[in-house]
Specification:
The chain is 35% helix and 21% strand. The chain has helices at residues 16-23, 43-48, 62-72, 91-101, 127-136, 198-208, 232-252, 257-275; strands at residues 3-9, 31-36, 52-56, 77-81, 86-87, 105-113, 146-147, 153-154, 165-168, 175-179, 212-223. Strands 3-2-1-4-10 form a 5-stranded mixed sheet, sandwiched between helices. Strand 7 and strand 8 (153-154) form a beta hairpin. It starts with a strand and ends with a helix.
Amino acid sequence: MEISVVIPTIGDRDILPTIVSLNNSTLIPKEIIIVSLKANIHKHINKKYKNVVFVKANKKGQVNQRIQGFKIAKSKFVMQLDDDITLHKSCLEVLTKNLCLNNNYSVSPNLFENSSKRSIYDYKINFKKILFNIISGFSIFCTEGKIGLSGFESYPLVSDISPELVKSEWLVGGCIMHHKKNLIKEYFFDFEGKAYCEDLFHSIELRKKKIELYIDKSAIAYLELNKKPKKIKDFIRENFRDLKIRKNFVIINDLSTFRMYSVYVLKFFNYFFSKK
């Protein structure tokens, strides 16, 4: 089973841990395509790993760079991967076996936070979660992967009693395995800067093509969660950038801007409450 891995990067992060994890896999990728804004920034990696190909980005932006990589990927199976994620050695093999079962699946791994080694999908239903569910239009105790009327997403709960494959309306964009024939190669995300909500936009595009989205709880990958900004001005700036993109998502998908703004109010209350 041949795999291509596409990794967009600005070029200022050490991507060697990601490359090492891919090449230590039980199923080693045929090609690892790095689409970078900075050319020849990682020459040392080229020399050590012959399956790594560096491509100079012709259009700025994480999504645009990923699509550029998709267009030149040669393998039957193609993984999109962020440059700060590392994989357990069996992750590629497990995800690929799932795709062999159905031509209309895209599958993401169970994502674990690096420092805590806890799955981001393993959580408890507390008061804040219930309030978020109500505002977003979910059921009160919703534990499914859904996109709400607010334009915000609910994570699926992945636990010991969950099935091996957990269906979701959306997948985290940092790591997804696709059939090459199902790749979205049209430019659907025309925003500058950090790609807020891109995984929601992308998931909608996949579902338009009748692709079913799943998380495999036994396929493990690791990431570093973004920390909450310490300064209020940074928190406001980050949420304002998120809002500009999410509002577009809400409008084009005929969702509720009132519910969306209500979730931002909840986020601000949570920010000040959790600082105390």
